[in-house]
Amino acid sequence: MINSVVKYLSGELTHEEKKFFLLSVTDDKTQGDDLIEFDHLLGYLSLMPQKEDTIKAQKSLLNFLKEVDTKKESE
Amino acid sequence: MNHNLLLSDTPKLYSNPNSIPGHHHISPKSIESTNDNGLDFSKIYLSFYPKLVRFATVFVVFEEDAENIIQDLFLGLWESKDSLKNIENINAYMYKLTKNKCLDHLKHKMVKERFIVNTQSLYEQEASLKLHSLENFDVELASEERVEKIVSKAIDKLPPKCREIFILSRHDGLKYKEISDKLNISVNTVETQMCIALKKLRKSVRLLLN
User: Fold this and answer.
1) Would you tell me how many other CB atoms lie within 10 Å of the CB of residue A5?
2) pLDDT tens digits, residue range B65-74?
3) Which of B28, B73, B75, B145 yields a CA-CA distance of 20 to 30 A from B162?
4) pTM to 2 decimals?
5) In 3D, which of B69, B81, B205, B57 has the Cα closest to residue B142?
């Protein structure tokens, strides 16, 4: 069953498989708990720095400041 | 205008924002108005933006939604940036804000979905599970520095092939088929290795956090 949880979290389930999986998770507490635990694990993993972070953040910040300027000008 | 002030913590290659491709015409007004508090805002943005988007994506499912949520969060911070200096634990503050924004988003989308579909859709089922999961996610714990070290150590301890597959999937966002093509292995092997990786990580993180 853990394989289905991992496949679901990796976006590898087909639409039908996903439908079946979500139903079974709702009915089966153990599987539901597994899903939450893996979800939380991915939450922790997402906070790890990655190599493109700096560049992504710089580009995004500059776009953000540009939008703030545009908003100020229109006010 | 002092771009170096704004991006003082970034690699030399990008110490001038105009050297970033596609960003030659950034209006300088906001940068000019960057005072001490503004500098703090930029540092916070640079340090938190990518990981908060990743974190939000885990719970709101769609990356585009996650990006909008985090942009909105920063817009709110920008509007009250003068009070940033009063925040004692910026890590905990940012994760808590993100969690609350994601919870609001999920609740809102579930109501909207119910209104449109008039029956429980696949998305609503998924959102309901994510909502439950996020409500139980301990952001205080996530904001502790030791968690980053614990997770990093757990990833380092994975067997080499397993770690490579895990990174290609979670870090580079490749689908199992793409990984199998890239490494010339079967999709089944990728699937098995991903299960091994996540089970091992769960075990290590569980042990280390308790």
Assistant:
1) 21
2) 999 999 999 9
3) B145
4) 0.80
5) B205
Question: Which residue, of B138, B170, B197, is where some domain finishes?
Answer: B138
Instruction: Please provide the DSSP assignment of B125-181 as one string.
Output: HHHHHHHHHHHT--HHHHTSHHHHHHHHHHHHTS-HHHHHHHIIIIIT---HHHHHH
Tokens representing B205 are 């993180």
In this prediction the ipTM stands at 0.89
Closest chain B residue to A2, measured at CA: B195
3-state secondary structure of B206: helix
Both B164 and B97 in one domain: the answer is no
Asked if A10 lies within 8 A of B194 by C-beta distance, the reply is: yes
CA distance B106 to chain A (A): 15
Q: Are A46 and B48 in contact (CB under 8 A)?
A: no
Measured between beta carbons, which residues in chain A are less than 8 angstroms from residue B191?
3, 6-7, 12
